[in-house]
Specification:
Shape: elongated
Strand order of the largest sheet: 7-1-6-3-2-8
Low-confidence stretches: 272-365
CATH class of the largest domain: Alpha Beta
Helix content: 40-55%
CATH architecture of the largest domain: 3-Layer(aba) Sandwich
Structural class: alpha/beta
Strand content: 5-15%
Number of helices: 13
Order of helices and strands: HHEHEHHEHEEEHHEHHHHEH
Length: 365
């Protein structure tokens, strides 16, 4: 592409698909992975990983899945790509992935089939782990309670399943609102935003792998990328790519804070950043320890609104399937709808307006 060649890049540095050479293991992500891994290896029942859109939780969940040894675990990872899914729908697919040839329609019989397969896995000396990404689609107290009941199943006085739910804060809120369900969570991990140093290293690594260098982004641009993405690496990548294009259109070889702000405006992300003096952009590459402006709370569209089917990945051989080869159940295309997470109310009525309305009501009476 012309704008990549303009910066002498031989690849797209800020692509958000899963390409190993572009991934950099941020300390905050590794801490989250370590906590999840501990819960799984101790055979805990219900484990929750929560984070906003683009926070890197899917990267951590995938890494957890990859690191679970086949001789010790029967691990599966499912990604819910529809706006809502109930427990019956999910149990049917879980049973099929466990090898149940004809999953029963009746819930009690279906759970019995699942338990039988889980007991066989336990007899084989392994522990079953099910990781569900975008689990906010399951975020109703009824559905989560039914799913969490699976982790109570035991064989020879040991649990037969660890359930890892990965989702947005919506998932976390539903769990916290139900005291019984909240007490069933044995490990909870929240994705932390990247700090200034992690941001600089993350962006510099991607530019270097793509054949460029960190000097392409000036210090003000780096600060703006962290601020306007709330430190979420996925959103940061999207914003950085668009900022590169803004600088290209302006005929510059370096990206400034203004380019980042223009890119964010073009993307139409909800919310506005708080005004702050822009750091002076100089040819000093990635500056650490510079002052950061306070970032506002930002709401992003929830990709759980994508009403499609569920993609399931289960190990069938010694190699991890390529992400692009994850089978999707066939379904008719549906309309994709995005909307804000919250409806904002308008300003309160003026007192004089309220009096006038009351007066008119009295006249009508």
């Amino acid at each position: 592409m012309d704008y990549l060649h303009h910066f002498e890049l031989n690849d797209d540095p800020f692509r958000n698909d899963h390409v190993d050479r572009f991934l950099w293991e941020a300390p905050s992500q590794m801490r989250a992975l370590s906590r999840l891994d501990r819960g799984v290896r101790q055979g805990r029942g219900l484990v929750v990983l929560a984070g906003g859109v683009g926070s890197g939780k899917s990267v951590v969940a995938r890494r957890l899945y990859e690191e679970l040894e086949e001789e010790m675990f029967e691990a599966g990872m499912m990604v819910v790509l529809r706006s809502h899914a109930d427990s019956a729908w999910l149990l049917q697919r879980f049973a099929a992935q466990l090898g149940v040839e004809e999953p029963a329609d009746q819930r009690e019989a279906l759970v019995g089939q699942i338990y039988e397969r889980l007991a066989i896995i336990r007899e084989d000396g392994r522990h079953a782990v099910l990781i569900i990404d975008d689990a906010q689609a399951l975020a109703t107290p009824e559905t989560l309670s039914e799913l969490s009941a699976l982790v109570k199943l035991e064989y020879e006085d040991r649990r037969v399943l660890t359930l890892v739910l990965v989702g947005t804060p919506q998932l976390e809120r539903v769990i916290e609102a139900d005291s019984h369900l909240a007490h069933q969570v044995e490990v909870k991990v929240r994705m932390a935003p990247m700090d200034a140093e992690e941001t600089a290293t993350h962006l510099g690594h991607r530019l270097t792998v793509a054949g460029g260098g960190p000097q392409i982004l000036l210090p003000g641009a780096i600060a703006a990328l962290r601020e306007l993405s709330d430190g979420a690496p996925g959103r940061m990548n999207c914003l950085a790519d668009n900022a590169l294009f803004e600088a290209f259109l302006a005929g510059r070889n370096e990206v400034t804070r203004n380019d980042v702000e223009s890119a964010r405006s073009a993307l139409g992300w909800p919310g506005e950043s708080k005004p702050a003096p822009a750091p002076h952009d100089v040819r000093s590459g990635f500056a650490s320890g510079q002052a950061e402006t306070t970032s506002p709370d930002m709401e992003m569209p929830d990709m759980g609104d994508l009403d499609s089917e569920l993609a399931a990945v289960f190990r069938s051989d010694d190699s991890l399937p390529d992400q692009g080869s994850i089978p999707l159940a066939s379904a008719a295309p549906t309309e994709i709808q995005f909307g804000p997470a919250d409806v904002l109310e308008g300003p309160p009525k003026d007192d004089d307006d309220a009096v006038d309305e009351l007066f008119m009501e009295l006249i009508d009476d």
